[in-house]
């Protein structure tokens, strides 16, 4: 989704191209057919897929606005790394068919534009993006029902999904000509154990951000998307189809097994206590990740926590640890070039009242200490 449209350019609004809305709606309505088509694609290319090995897939997952996109971009630009791109949507189920036959519907010379989040990140149809959530929603229909525990662990079994998903990752590796699969998906935060069951050598990178700034960014994005989705309902439908419920008119809490905590967070938001609600949500999700790591040594070894502030203030050393954890080579010159792209945001500042700052501090104190924040 681009950020500009002819009728909204002056206002800097988001654009939802008509063809993308119509094709996305058609594929969403006929998802069963597209799943079958994806399975047929796998059968037709079985010999080719069987020669592909999934080696140490890399998963970037955190709460939205924590730095996951910039980490995705920096990892994706390395030789041999393959990931989903904007051009892979809407027919995510059939990446070989779509990329080899119809990907030209996206311009290859499209100039970079600031993405919908208005956060300085420029994108083109070839930019890496989170797209695999479409598959999770298809095979796990309740994965965004916040009345249900959304955690998938080593006891989870879904053979149909697992066959389709393994083949899908191999297709992305084929399409992109890569040897390492890279994914960004914030909802994968609750799926690490299940993914490690599928891929024992998987590597997980979890960006973390100091809660005062993180909450400010989440609130800013929520206001932005609520306004744009109210202006153009097609934007809301697009966000629902791609599985982005982090903010906007259909904002949903991730349920990690504590239904009362979910209820309380939603009530805080309904009561207008946005800052406290987001702060409690921040603490709940990062406590879940920390608790899971402490209880599972194999997972602890596979999960790297990356503080956004370290990424901006000590970029070369922090990126060196990220690349080492992911098992990707990076020369000092490459690290220096990537570090030059990183800086703390200057396009907004938190504007909390003293009561809101106190609420954020109180709600996140224990979790902040666990993450090493003073």
Automatic annotation (TrEMBL):
One Pfam family this sequence matches: Sulfotransfer_3
Matches recorded under Gene3D superfamilies: P-loop containing nucleotide triphosphate hydrolases
SUPFAM superfamilies named among the record's database cross-references: P-loop containing nucleoside triphosphate hydrolases
Superkingdom as given in the UniProt entry: Bacteria
Cross-referenced InterPro entries: P-loop_NTPase, Stf3_sulfotransferase
Name used for this protein in its record: Sulfotransferase
